[in-house]
Amino acid sequence: MAKVSFIGLGVMGFPMARHLDAAGHQVTVFNRTSQKSRAWAESCKGQVAFSPEEAARGAEFVFSCVGNDDDLREVTVGPKGAFHSMGAGSVYVDHTTASARIARELAALAQKRDVRFVDAPVSGGQAGAEKGELTVMCGGAEDAFECACPLIDAYARACVLMGPVGSGQLTKMVNQISIVGVLQGLSEALNFGQRSGLDMDSVIDVISKGAAQSWQLDNRAQTMCRGEFDFGFAVKWMRKDLHIVCDEAKDNGARLPITELIDEFYADLQERGGAGWDTSSLIKLLQ
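The structure assignment produced for this chain is given below.
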């Protein structure tokens, strides 16, 4: 069992830290909004810290899951960042969906302190975090990954080293490009079926057994047909991710015409008050 800290108790971080606690690790948590830390501590055995620096002091592993590059930089190298108190040989595992650029930047700074850094964005959403069934895409040195993976297994069904630092974030970008493409196609298909007067329950059932099957079809088609979007992964967060994707594409020369178009669709949904709607709300633009 390890002494660990977890920074960021949002809809993902809260249950992930809980799984580490349930696995028997000695967990200290920090969240910018202190009431979330207190709520976590009420149901778990771990401790609450009042800064990332305090949380990380003496920890063998520090995990984080925050909002974006700026948030990540603040909790690591900011005035009260975790890097200031992490000991030599410790491992920092970041689950934030962020840029590959920030991962490489922080890995270089960590190395100067003899701290190992792993970028480890996740897929599976809040439900996956609650159930401990996330897919974790990692970038970093093999020794750091091998040290961290047994702990990550507390909330993951798959944990894979994709390559050097930044590779986890790049893989997550591939994941997000795939998701929005599938969602747009599914939105058009379901809207077409509804306008054709088909029994959509039967349609969804039969096509889920063929080549059209996907996680989005299995988990979102029914709610899309019912117009239910007050759950899941919010449009505003997907737009944040797509901005990271498009910035990376400018650097590597990849063309993303469909992804860029779908980002415009999400911007339209935001303007309609849908920033907090699930990403499957793309179908609303067709109805």
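Interim note for the steering committee: The longest strand covers residues 156-163. Residues 3-164 form a domain with the Rossmann fold fold (CATH 3.40.50.720).
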